[in-house]
Design a protein that fits this description.
This protein has about 100 residues and is an alpha+beta fold. Helices cover about 55% and strands about 25% of the residues. A four-stranded antiparallel beta sheet has the order 1-2-3-4. Helix 2 crosses helix 3 (about 50-65).
Length: about 100
């Protein structure tokens, strides 16, 4: 095996490892609920036990009733539709990014 072939093999191994890592760390709908709950509490400025107690079930209900989830194995798209507004998030590597 020549040097160029070894280099190509190494690149493929790294690529496959990244894809596997992405698949294993693809967040699920419960992770999305937790993320939105934390984000809502942070944005409200009410970081206390009462706001956490109230926000959790409300956000969970909103996500369950108003979210379209599209799982692409290595990442998941979440489209949250409420009050005529649509917000899209991408979940990957145990993180979420709002894209729309």
């Amino acid at each position: 095996m020549n040097k160029e072939s070894k280099s190509n093999n190494f690149k493929w191994i790294i690529f496959i490892a990244i894809i596997m890592l992405a698949a294993f760390t693809n967040p699920d709908k419960d992770d999305f609920k937790d993320y939105l709950t934390e984000k809502t509490i942070e944005e409200s400025g009410e970081d206390n036990w009462l706001s956490s107690l109230i926000s959790g079930p409300v956000i969970a209900l909103l996500v369950d009733s108003s979210t379209i989830e599209k799982d692409y194995i290595v990442f998941t798209a979440y489209e949250l539709n409420y009050d005529g507004n649509s917000t899209t998030y991408i979940g990957a590597f145990n993180n979420f990014i709002q894209i729309k």
